[in-house]
Specification:
The complex is a heterodimer of chains A (about 110) and B (about 900). With about 110 residues, chain A is of the alpha+beta class. In chain A, about 60% of the residues lie in helices and about 15% in strands. Chain A has a single domain, classed as Winged helix-like DNA-binding domain superfamily/Winged helix DNA-binding domain (Arc Repressor Mutant, subunit A, Orthogonal Bundle). Chain A has helices spanning about 10-20, 30-40, 45-60, 85-105; strands at about 25, 65-70, 75-80. Chain A has a three-stranded antiparallel sheet. In chain A, strand 2 and strand 3 form a beta hairpin. Chain A is globular and about 55 Å long. Mean pLDDT of chain A is about 85; it is low at about 1-5. Chain B has about 900 residues and is α+β, with helices and mostly antiparallel strands. Chain B folds into five domains: about 1-70, no CATH class; about 75-125 and about 360-495, no CATH class; about 130-345, no CATH class; about 515-535 and about 755-893, no CATH class; about 545-755, no CATH class. The radius of gyration of chain B is 38 Å and the shape is elongated. The chains are: A alpha+beta (about 110), B alpha+beta (about 900). Chains A and B meet through helix 2, helix 3 and strand 3 of A and helix 1, helix 2 and helix 4 of B.
Chain lengths: ~110, ~900
C-alpha cells in the first residue's frame, strides 16, 4: 500500500472488503488478493491497512472471524459477513453512488 | 446493534487481553506464512518469498500496533500506559514530586477550607424539611431590624395567610440555668411558638417535640426540648432523659425530647441548646403572664413557610399589603412600616436590608483562587525546568513516531497525577483548616457554632480545583515540551534555556509577584480594619458588664411600687460580693431597643417639610456615667438629688451639643421633649460621644435623663462584676427572686457578647484571620517562585559568567548583572500587583473600618516587605553566581 498515487479512504476500503466477502468467507491474504484482482491492480492493500480494517469491522459486528483451514491446509483466520455487515454493505454502496454522482456532475464542463 | 458488539469487544479486550494478543500473534504469523506460500506458488524460491513477504508486512510489530490502535478501548489502554509511565517518572524524581505535590496541596487546601466555609454559611441548606421554602421577616421603621414585637407578629400571622402556610416566632438566646443532674448548668434557650417544630418538619431524636396542641398561653406545660449537642455534652447523652423532671431557673420543668443531630434552630450560626414554648417565657423568667402583655421590650424573630406555589416575590407583595394595613390600624407605633421576607438559606440573619455574606464569600474565594494560581505558577515553573531536562527523551519518542498529541497527553497525565496527589494532601489540609476555622476562639459566651463539615459539595470542589490546577500548570510545559526538533537536540547545543522559554518563565514570576502583592495588600487592609474596629473608642467601658432585662410592669407593679423596687434592686445588687458597680438604664448600647424622639430647642429652626430636630435618649440611674466609664467633659453627672420633684435635667453628648448649640457652652441651656412637653429639660452636663447603636454607624445626638424623672417600667440592670458570667447571672437572678419570686429577668447577656457578636467584631476577626493566612501563603509561594527562577537562571548563565570572569569582570559586577534581572522581575510584578490591589481594594472598601481601600500605609508597608523579600531571593543566587570558578564554568556543558 503506501502508494501516494491511490489514496484509499478508510470507508472505501471497508466497502471493498465487505463486497469481497459478500460471496463467502475468506482469509486475510485471499481478501487482499481478491481486491487487487477485482480492481485490476489499482488497489493493493497491505497488511498494515488490511488488519486494522478487518479487526475494526469485526469489533463492530459487521464481520465474524473464525479459525479455519486454507486451501493449502494451513491454519488461517477466516472472515465472513454478518447480517449487519450485509446491511452495511448496502448502505455503503448507496453512499458511494451518491458521492460519485455528485462529484461527476461537479466535474462536468 | 453496533454498540452492543463494540461493548462486547471492549470488555473482551480489557479482560481477555492475553488471549486477544496471542490470537493476534497467531493471525499475523499465519498471514505471513500464507503470503510466503502465495509468492512461492508464483514462482519465487523460499528465501526470496520470505523476504518479499517481510517487506510487505513491514515490521511484524507494526501490524500489531495498527490493530491495537483500532481496537475498542484502545484509548483507555493508552491512558493506563500513560499513567503507569507517569507514576514511574514521579517516583524516580522524589524531590521534584514532593515539592510539586506540596505546592499543589497548599493551594488546593486553602481553597477547600475557604469553600467549606462558604458552603457551611451559604450553600448548605438548613437541616429542616424544604428549607428553600422558609423565609425570615425583617421590618423597617427608620432602619432595618429583625426583631418584632409579639403582638405585631401575631397580626402578621393572621393577615398573611395568602402567602404563608405557617408563621413561627422565636425569642432567642436566653441564658437560663438548667438543673437536671444535681447542679445548675447554663443553657441557651430559644423560646418558640408551638408550631415551630411542626414548621421545621423534623423528627425528634428522642421523645417528642413541643406540639401545636399546646397553646401559646402562659401557664402551659413547662416542657423543654434539648438540642442534640447539648444533650451529649452536658447530660452525657443520658438515654433516660425523656420525662426527666428538672429545674429551669429554679422552676420545675419536664424534659420531653431531644432534637435531631445537626438541628440548630433556624439560624445556622448559633447553637440553640434548648427549646421551650414561648408561652413559658414570662413564667420561666418570673410571673405568669401572657406574652402579649409585655410591651415593647419583647423581641422575637419571625419565620414563615411559603405556601405551595407562592414564591418570594409574591410574598413580598402580600407583606406590603399587610404592612400598610398595620400602619393604618396602629398609626402610633407602626407608621412607615415596611415588611420584607428573605430566604433562610442566607447564612446569617442580618438586621439590615442587605446580606453581606455573599459578597464577603466571593471576595475570599477570589483571594483563595489567587493562592491557587500562585501555586500553579510555581509548579508550572518546576515543570518547565524539568521539561528542558527531558527534551532528549521527547525528541526520541517523537522520532519513533509518537504523535505530538500523545506527548502532550503524557506530560498532562504526569501533571494530573501530581494534582491528584496534591488533591489528597489538599483535602486533608482543607479538612484541618476548616476544623480550625470552626474552632476559632471568638471570645464570646454566645453559643456560636461555626460548622463547616466536609460534605460532597466540598469534596467535588476540591476535585475540581485539582483538575483546574493540573490543566493550568501542565498545559504550557506540555505544549512546549512536545515541540522538539530531533536534529537540534541531538546536536547537543547546550544553550539551555532559549530566549523564548525563559521569557515565559520570567513573565510567570512577574505574575506571581503581582498576585502575591495583591493578596498581601488586601490582607493588610483587613488586619488594619480589625485593629481599628477593636480599638474603636467605644466611649464607655464594656468589660465585665452583664445586662439583665427587668420589667416591673410584667409583675404588675405600678409606678410607685416600681420605683421602690428598682431602688432596692440597685442597692442590693451593689451590695453583692464580687460586684464592682451596678446601674439601671432604659436602653443599652448595641441593645435591642433604642429610645428617642423629637425635641425642641430655642433658637434652632424648625421649618415645616424639613425633618424635625431629634435626639436619642436614655433614662439612667444616678452616677451612670461613672459606672459605665463614660467621660464627663463639663458640668456634672446625674445625681440622687435629681428626683421626681426637682428640676428636670439632662446630660448631653458632644454631637448633640454641636448640633443644637454650636460654638456655645450648652450647660444651662434648655430644651423640651415631645414626650413631656410640660417639663423643659436643663442641660447640666456634657459627656464624650459613645457608640450606642453599632460599632460602625455614626454617633447620634444623645441625652441622658435621670430615671427618677422619666420612669420606665422595663429597664436593664447593668452589673459590672469580676465573677464569671454564669455565676454572676445566678446570683443576680437569686437576688431578684428573693425580692419577688414572680419577677421576670430576661435578655441576659454580657456586653462583650454584643460587641464581639455577629453585629460586632466577628466578621472583622474572621476576615482578618482568613485574609492574613491567605496572604501569608501567597507570600511564601511567591518568594519560593522568585528564588527558584533566579537560581535556575543564574545556573544557566554559568558559562556566560565564567567567560566574563575570565575576561576580567569583578565579582561585584557579576552580582549586579544577576541582581538586575531579578529586581526587574520583582519590580514589574510589584507595579502590576499594586494596580490590581487598588482595584480589589475598591471592592473591599465597603467592609473596612477606618481604612480606605487605597490606604497608603498598608500599600507602602506591604510593598516594602515584598521588595525586601524579593531582594533576598535574588541575592542568594547572585552571590552564588559570583563565586563561580571560570575554569569549571567554561568546561560546563
Amino acid at each position: 500500500m503506501g502508494d501516494k498515487q491511490t489514496e484509499l479512504l478508510q470507508g472505501t476500503l471497508d466497502m471493498l472488503i465487505l463486497k469481497t466477502l459478500a460471496l463467502g468467507p475468506l482469509h486475510g491474504v485471499a481478501v487482499a488478493a481478491r481486491i487487487e484482482q477485482v480492481t485490476h491492480g489499482t488497489f493493493q492493500v497491505g497488511p498494515g491497512s488490511l488488519f486494522p480494517a478487518l479487526h475494526r469491522m469485526a469489533e463492530k459486528g459487521w464481520l465474524k472471524a473464525s479459525w479455519g483451514e486454507s486451501e493449502t491446509k494451513r491454519r488461517a483466520k477466516f472472515y465472513e459477513l454478518t447480517k449487519t455487515g450485509r446491511r452495511q454493505l448496502e448502505t455503503e454502496k448507496e453512499r458511494w453512488k451518491t458521492i460519485t454522482l455528485a462529484v461527476t456532475r461537479a466535474l462536468e464542463p | 446493534m453496533e454498540l452492543v458488539a463494540k461493548a462486547a469487544s471492549f470488555l473482551r479486550n480489557m479482560f481477555r487481553r492475553r488471549q486477544v494478543e496471542s490470537d493476534l500473534d497467531a493471525e499475523v504469523a499465519s498471514y505471513f506464512n500464507i503470503l510466503v506460500e502465495t509468492h512461492m506458488k508464483d514462482g519465487m524460491d523460499e528465501p526470496s518469498a520470505r523476504r518479499a513477504a517481510r517487506l510487505e508486512m513491514g515490521g511484524g510489530d507494526q501490524v500489531h500496533e495498527e490493530v491495537r490502535h483500532v481496537q475498542a478501548g484502545a484509548w483507555l489502554r493508552t491512558c493506563w500506559q500513560d499513567l503507569r509511565y507517569a507514576a514511574r517518572i514521579l517516583v524516580k524524581n522524589p524531590t521534584f514530586t514532593l515539592v510539586a505535590v506540596t505546592t499543589f496541596a497548599i493551594g488546593i487546601g486553602a481553597n477547600t477550607a475557604i469553600f467549606s466555609m462558604v458552603n457551611g454559611l451559604l450553600l448548605r441548606p438548613v437541616p429542616i424539611s424544604h428549607s428553600d421554602q422558609v423565609v425570615y421577616l425583617i421590618q423597617k421603621h427608620d432602619h432595618w431590624a429583625n426583631g418584632f414585637s409579639y403582638p405585631v407578629m401575631e397580626e402578621i400571622r393572621k393577615q398573611s395567610g395568602e402567602a404563608f402556610s405557617d408563621v413561627a416566632a422565636v425569642r432567642p438566646f436566653q441564658m437560663d440555668g438548667l438543673n437536671a443532674s444535681g447542679a445548675s448548668q447554663p443553657i441557651w434557650n430559644e423560646y418558640v411558638t408551638t408550631n415551630f417544630f411542626s414548621m421545621a418538619g423534623i423528627k425528634p431524636a428522642l421523645g417528642s417535640f413541643i406540639t401545636p396542641s399546646v397553646d401559646n398561653v402562659a401557664g402551659s406545660d413547662p416542657v423543654l426540648v434539648l438540642s442534640y449537642a447539648y444533650w451529649q455534652s452536658h447530660l452525657a447523652g443520658d438515654p433516660n432523659i425523656v420525662g426527666r423532671q428538672a429545674q429551669l431557673n429554679g422552676r420545675p420543668i419536664t424534659i420531653i425530647g431531644v432534637a435531631p443531630r445537626g438541628f440548630r434552630g433556624f439560624a445556622p450560626l448559633i447553637d440553640a441548646q434548648g427549646y421551650m414554648p414561648i408561652g413559658q417565657f414570662a413564667a420561666m423568667q418570673g410571673k405568669m403572664q401572657s406574652p402579649a402583655a409585655a410591651k415593647d421590650a419583647t423581641s422575637v424573630l419571625v419565620f414563615a413557610r411559603l405556601k405551595d406555589g407562592v414564591d418570594l416575590a409574591k410574598s413580598q407583595s402580600v407583606l406590603a399589603v399587610v404592612a400598610r394595613r398595620l400602619a393604618d390600624e396602629f398609626p402610633k407605633t407602626e407608621k412607615d412600616l415596611v415588611l420584607r421576607a428573605a430566604l433562610l438559606r442566607s447564612g446569617m440573619i442580618s438586621g439590615d436590608g442587605t446580606n453581606p455574606v455573599p459578597a464577603i464569600a466571593a471576595i475570599f474565594l477570589i483571594l483563595a483562587g489567587l493562592v491557587l494560581a500562585l501555586a500553579s505558577a510555581n509548579v508550572t515553573n518546576l515543570l518547565l525546568v524539568r521539561a528542558i531536562a527531558r527534551t532528549r527523551e521527547m525528541a526520541v519518542r517523537s522520532a519513533l513516531g509518537a504523535a505530538r498529541f500523545r506527548l502532550v497527553r503524557q506530560v498532562l497525565t504526569e501533571t494530573l497525577l501530581l494534582a491528584l496527589l496534591g488533591f489528597a494532601g489538599g483535602a486533608v489540609l482543607g479538612f484541618i483548616g476548616s476544623r480550625a476555622l470552626g474552632n476559632l476562639d471568638l471570645r464570646t459566651d454566645l453559643p456560636l457554632v461555626l460548622d463547616f463539615p466536609f460534605d460532597w459539595r466540598v469534596f467535588f470542589f476540591a476535585l475540581g480545583a485539582a483538575g483546574v490546577v493540573a490543566l493550568l500548570a501542565g498545559l504550557v510545559p506540555a505544549l512546549r515540551g512536545s515541540r522538539v526538533d530531533l536534529n537540534e537536540v541531538m546536536r547537543e547545543t547546550s544553550r539551555g534555556a532559549s530566549g523564548g522559554r525563559s521569557r515565559f518563565r520570567s513573565a510567570l514570576v512577574v505574575a506571581q509577584v503581582s498576585g502575591s502583592l495583591t493578596l498581601l495588600i488586601v490582607a493588610g487592609l483587613f488586619v488594619r480594619s480589625l485593629l481599628n474596629a477593636q480599638h474603636t473608642d467605644l466611649g464607655f467601658n464594656p468589660n465585665h458588664v452583664i445586662n439583665f432585662g427587668v420589667d416591673a410592669h410584667a409583675a404588675g407593679y405600678d409606678e410607685t411600687r416600681g420605683r421602690e423596687f428598682y431602688r432596692t434592686l440597685l442597692d442590693r445588687t451593689r451590695a453583692m460580693p464580687g460586684v464592682e458597680g451596678a446601674s439601671l438604664a432604659a436602653t443599652v448600647p448595641m441593645g435591642p431597643i433604642s429610645l428617642g424622639g423629637t425635641i425642641h430647642v430655642a433658637g434652632f429652626p424648625e421649618t415645616p417639610g424639613q425633618p424635625k430636630p431629634t435626639a436619642s435618649m436614655n433614662a439612667v440611674s444616678p452616677a451612670y456615667l461613672k459606672t459605665m466609664g463614660i467621660t464627663l467633659l463639663r458640668g456634672r453627672d446625674i445625681q440622687e438629688s435629681d428626683s421626681e420633684t426637682a428640676q428636670h435635667i439632662a446630660v448631653i453628648n458632644e454631637v448633640m451639643a454641636q448640633r443644637y448649640w454650636p460654638n456655645q457652652d450648652p450647660i444651662g441651656h434648655q430644651f423640651t421633649r415631645d414626650e413631656d412637653p410640660k417639663n423643659p429639660v436643663q442641660v447640666v452636663g456634657l459627656m464624650k460621644n459613645s457608640h450606642t447603636s453599632s460599632l460602625t454607624e455614626a454617633i447620634d445626638a444623645m441625652y441622658f435623663v435621670p430615671m427618677a424623672q422619666d420612669y420606665r417600667a422595663a429597664q436593664t440592670l447593668q452589673v459590672r462584676t469580676s465573677l464569671a458570667s454564669s455565676a454572676a447571672v445566678q446570683a443576680v437572678r437569686e437576688t431578684v427572686r428573693s425580692m419577688d419570686g414572680n419577677l421576670p429577668v430576661f435578655d441576659v447577656r454580657t456586653m462583650n457578647d454584643a460587641l464581639n457578636g455577629i453585629s460586632g467584631l466577628l466578621l472583622y476577626k474572621l476576615g482578618a484571620t482568613l485574609a492574613g493566612m491567605l496572604g501569608f501563603l501567597g507570600f511564601v509561594l511567591a518568594v519560593i517562585g522568585v528564588y527558584g527562577v533566579m537560581s535556575y537562571t543564574a545556573a544557566q548563565r554559568t558559562r556566560e559568567i565564567g567567560i566574563r570572569v575570565a575576561l576580567g569582570a569583578q565579582p561585584g559586577q557579576i552580582v549586579r548583572i544577576v541582581f538586575r534581572q531579578g529586581m526587574l522581575i520583582v519590580g514589574l510584578g510589584m507595579l502590576i500587583g499594586t494596580a490590581a490591589a487598588l482595584g480589589l481594594g475598591k471592592v473591599v472598601a465597603g467592609f473596612l473600618v477606618g481604612v480606605g481601600g487605597a490606604d497608603p500605609l498598608t500599600f507602602l508597608a506591604v510593598c516594602f516587605a515584598m521588595a525586601a523579600a524579593g531582594l533576598t531571593a535574588c541575592f542568594v543566587p547572585a552571590r552564588r553566581a559570583m563565586k563561580v570558578d571560570p575554569m569549571i564554568a567554561l568546561r560546563y556543558e
